[in-house]
Amino acid sequence: MTHLAKLTLKSVQRESTSDPALARRRKLATALDEQMHVVAAAKAGEQYHATIRRWQKNDAGERVPVHTEKRVRPWFFEQDGGWYVQCRYGSRVLPLNGKSNAVFVEKLEEVAPAFDALKAAAMAGELDAAINEALKTAPRGRKVGSKTVAPGSVAKH
Q1: Which of 46, 74, 83, 139 fits a disulfide with 41 by CB distance 3.0 to 4.6 angstroms?
Q2: Which of 54, 57, 49 is nearest to 66 (CA)?
């Protein structure tokens, strides 16, 4: 009897365990958690800097991890006698209900609960359509007449 005959053999394809929509929700929730740190720093009159790990070459030419500070831009700003809170995915502002893109609160202390509500909405899947819309990108290049020209190429007329 051969060695393979002793085993139970089947043909199978591995299923993907990660849902892309769930990964997007987690990414947005992580960014909203980071904004909570920005709000706490703003209340204290400070700026928040996140620490990230980068790879750099040292004097010997080896790649080593280096911890550097990354500036985190706030998603809230003061205007019209109150504070506007926006939700972003990457660099794009998400439309919250199709037409509005910000939550208005009276005081800086109300910004953190607004971020909590946005995080709950994101984890419940209420912002999935807005995230999908933000992921759609325009074609790269510049428009010349009715044609899109690739970057670095010369347009022929």
Answers
A1: 46
A2: 54
In angstroms and rounded to an integer, the radius of gyration of the C-alpha atoms of the chain is 24
How far apart are the C-alpha atoms of 102 and 60, rounded to whole Å? 50
Query: Which residue range forms the structural domain that includes residue 114?
Result: 21-135
Is 154 part of any domain?
no
What tens digit of pLDDT does each residue of 116-152 get?
999 999 999 999 999 998 888 766 666 666 666 666 6
- Which backbone phi and psi does 111 adopt, to 5 degrees? -70, -40
pLDDT of the residue at 157: 54
Q: Is residue 77 part of a domain?
A: yes
CA 137 – CA 104 distance, rounded (Å): 28
Residues 6 or more apart from 127 whose CB is under 8 A from it? 25, 28, 87, 94, 96, 118, 121
5 contacts: CB under 8 Å, gap ≥ 6: none
